[in-house]
Design a protein that fits this description.
Elements: H1 9-22, E1 31-34, E2 44-48, E3 55-63, E4 72-81, H2 82-86, E5 92-99, E6 104-110, H3 112-122, E7 129-137, E8 142-144, H4 150-158, H5 163-166, H6 183-189
Parallel strand pairs: 3-5
Antiparallel strand pairs: 1-2, 2-3, 4-7, 5-6, 7-8
Length: about 190
């Protein structure tokens, strides 16, 4: 028997978090979260609770936890279709990581064009599908880690706060700190 209703884990976790966070300070933006009846590249539509006229279209991408070493709170692994990313109608892609040990969700909220730009800079090949890894360390810093040498991975995982950003190996296209838990960008649209 085929289910007629389905919501994926990332969509569910994101919807719960939006309803929990946006109505409180500092956002004060009570919202409704809607699930479209058909998949057009938007997983959730968030509207202002008062009029339902201001909206943000979101694409949720879930990853189970692939935290590879001590010092990494959560590690995500996604396979992205770059054409779908380029043509996405969503205002934001939200990368959802669920950290098993902490039983906590982490959210990276980013415009698809910005994510595409960062991925293209980091990936030398021009394949249409790419594997993408993000780590969140114990300082709640977020970096893309695919193809990083072990020494740089250790700096991200076990270094002091800001250690990778201060290192000679720092690459701003690997830096996702400004997108980590950036619910402010969604709230601005409501």
């Amino acid at each position: 028997m085929k289910s007629i209703f389905s919501i994926h884990a990332g969509e569910y976790l994101l919807g719960l978090e939006l309803e929990k966070r946006l109505h409180k300070k500092p956002y004060n933006k009570p919202c409704n979260v809607w699930v479209p009846g058909k998949d057009y590249g938007i997983d959730l539509l968030v509207t202002d609770k008062k009029t339902n006229k201001k909206a943000a279209a979101l694409q949720a991408k879930f990853s189970k936890d692939y935290a590879p070493m001590q010092g990494v709170l959560a590690g995500g692994w996604w396979t992205f279709d770059l054409k779908k990313m380029k043509d996405s109608p969503a205002e934001f892609w939200v990368l959802v990581l669920y950290a098993l040990q902490q039983q906590k969700s982490h959210f990276i909220i980013i415009e698809p064009s910005v994510l595409l730009s960062k991925i293209r800079f980091l990936r030398s090949n021009r394949k249409s599908k790419v594997n993408f890894y993000l780590w969140i360390n114990r300082h709640k810093e977020c970096y893309a880690t695919r193809d990083l040498p072990v020494e740089e991975q250790n700096i991200i995982a076990n270094g002091k706060k800001g250690a990778y950003k201060k290192s000679k190996a720092y690459n701003p296209n690997r830096d996702f700190n400004s997108f980590y838990e950036d619910f402010k960008s969604i709230a601005k649209l409501l």
